[in-house]
């Protein structure tokens, strides 16, 4: 009897140890917020409604569509990506509220593609995502400040900065239009200040600088800008405003018969926004002949492998959305996020995600024509622009079929010209990196 | 109520709320801070409209003045946080005194129009002066919580503690002043200005005083809102002024205690709307219009059934029973 009792006790002990071992092995080594065995939760704040929603509202659904495509093809190491979209109406206080919900209520692993300079600054200051250790990946703004790793240790930029773009345009002007009377339209905030600093470093002097207050752009204010450009006899005008402001400037100038050589900044050259602002599907004709700077291919360039692949995904997974630059940006960010998650290991954590981008981010595929500059000391993404001319349909075309990149930094570094050297699109648009 | 008893009640409620914040999840603690700030903002309307009978659609502008001056003194003069609140409060009060001087000559829709113009115009100044940093706004912070509170004492708990202590101090002051000689003077003014004047009340001076104190209260609310949120033109737009008036109507424009109810509704509606919108399929049209629809419905129902607010209704009900 005693022997059988002992035997029974031994069986129980063995079973308990075996069960514990099984349970322990089933628990991931580092269970992370927003990561389960079947899902990775990510969050994005973007204007889905309100005046800024035109164009920008397409970014998050495009990203979600790309994730749906990845999920349908096995997800990231077996986990599906669940993107939670929050509408911040382009208002910083709303961005704070929505980011709070994403981090504290929805418990996302990371914030991705958060849009707007003021919104990202407000969130960094008040939600303090850095001290919470929450990664903010590939922010949708070109403000150079976000590349400051000390100030924003968990934030990664993607777009080349406004300062980089201004320096590239300054170099282009000095090379191609050195004697022309040149003028510029700038927004009166950090976006414009970043650009103004870049133009100054780039050594370009403007005959007339017009600054407008964000949100005040209208036909009436447009008349004032164009009046100033015409009075100063500007032969070249750099439109470095947002899409709505650039559209108004183009529309007012055309109505008044004023025809300088336009140079359009990448932020304000979105065709969807220009058409919507002027309420005219043919408004792209106003862009015809304008010189444009861009860090990525034009969304209408069907010869580009990234554009082709993203268009295919868009057709099946994005509820019939018209493919444009905003859709391309959303999908490209999705592509980068998937590579970052894969590089973060089979059980990704917030820390391993940040470390992975710092270590391997420069090897990630991206539609941008310059290589990515991520490293242990740099959270800068793309670093260069190419120049082309817009046609009647508002498509940016390379003049000589080449994509010569004007690559630089946001500080006083030189502008270096190289041929485009981006990495190829992963097969079927599905990253296989680790 | 005896003022010592009232003081004890305020201290006791503050301590209870501070203790509660240690047990509540962080998002709710942040929303708690928002509710306390909105309650203070609504109190500024109650004091002005409910007591002195002056209508203001522009108290959001006084909040902006409070927030901007507090932020500027922190950024440029490096004043300790509490003193930035003092500067914010007094700057807004000064602006209130100046506007009140003009407002004392206006009444009804003319006064509403003048204050509305302030609410529309003032935020745009942020884009005219580089010191105000345009749309990007100013970075006004509380700093991190003291380390001796421990790691579990998070940033939002720190926000809540700072907000609650300041709000309760100001509420105590407001409660006392409304039950003082000044409060009775304002009530007399609201009831019948001519009769008040005949009984020796200085109509103009009393109105200016009400405007000054109301603006000061709004200024502190603005400073606190800026500390936990965003100091920029979009943070203090017309929407905020309207939200305060809506909160005041919902809570009963004569009830200071009811201001808490109005504040809870203001913070809860967006979340309620998002839950309903999610159930209805999250279409853009539903998501963007639902908060406005809920708010408007509540306003209509309040005006129809409890025009003086639920708190006043309960008080009347109790009085009838007695």
What does this structure look like?
The complex is a heterodimer of chains A (434) and B (322). By secondary structure, chain A is an alpha/beta fold. Chain A has helices at 2-26, 53-56, 59-72, 92-105, 117-126, 129-132, 162-176, 190-202, 219-231, 243-256, 271-278, 305-317, 325-343, 350-360, and strands at 39-46, 80-87, 110-112, 136-139, 155-157, 182-187, 208-212, 236-240, 261-264, 291-294, 384-390, 396-397, 404-407, 416-419. In chain A, the strands form two sheets. In chain A, strands 6, 7, 8, 9, 10, 11, 12, 13 and 14 form a nine-stranded mixed sheet that branches. The relative contact order of chain A is 0.13. Chain B has helices at 3-21, 26-51, 59-77, 81-103, 108-121, 155-178, 181-191, 193-198, 203-228, 238-251, 259-280, 284-305, 309-321. In chain B, helix 4 packs antiparallel against helix 9 and helix 7 (181-191) packs across helix 9. By secondary structure, chain B is an all-alpha fold. Chain B has one domain (3-237). Chain A binds chain B through residues 48-50, 57, 87, 91-93, 96-97, 100-101, 104-105, 117-118, 121-122, 125-126, 128, 131, 188-190, 213-216, and chain B through 25-27, 30, 124, 127-128, 133-137, 139, 141, 144, 155, 228-230, 232, 234-235, 270, 284, 287-288.
Order of SSEs of chain A, N→C?
A: HEHHEHEHHEEHEHEHEHEHEHHHEEEE
Q: Say what the CATH topology of the largest domain in chain A is.
A: Rossmann fold
Average pLDDT of chain A: 90
Largest sheet of chain A: 9 strands, mixed
- How many H/I helical runs of chain A? 14
Net shape of chain B: globular
User: What's the number of helices of chain B?
Assistant: 13
Instruction: Report the largest inter-chain contact.
Output: A-B, 29 and 26 residues
Q: Whole-number average pLDDT of chain B?
A: 88
3D shape of chain A: globular
Helical fraction of chain A: 40-55%
Number of strands of chain A: 14
How many distinct folded domains of chain B?
A: 1
User: From the structure provided, what is the oligomeric state, counting identical versus distinct chains?
Assistant: heterodimer
Structural class of chain A: alpha/beta
Pattern of helices and strands of chain B? HHHHHHHHHHHHH
Rounded to the nearest angstrom, the distance between the terminal CA atoms of chain A is 58 Å
CATH classification, class level of the largest domain in chain A: Alpha Beta
The biggest beta sheet of chain B reads: none
Query: How many separate structural domains of chain A?
Result: 2
What is the radius of gyration of chain B computed over CA atoms, rounded to a whole number of angstroms?
20 Å
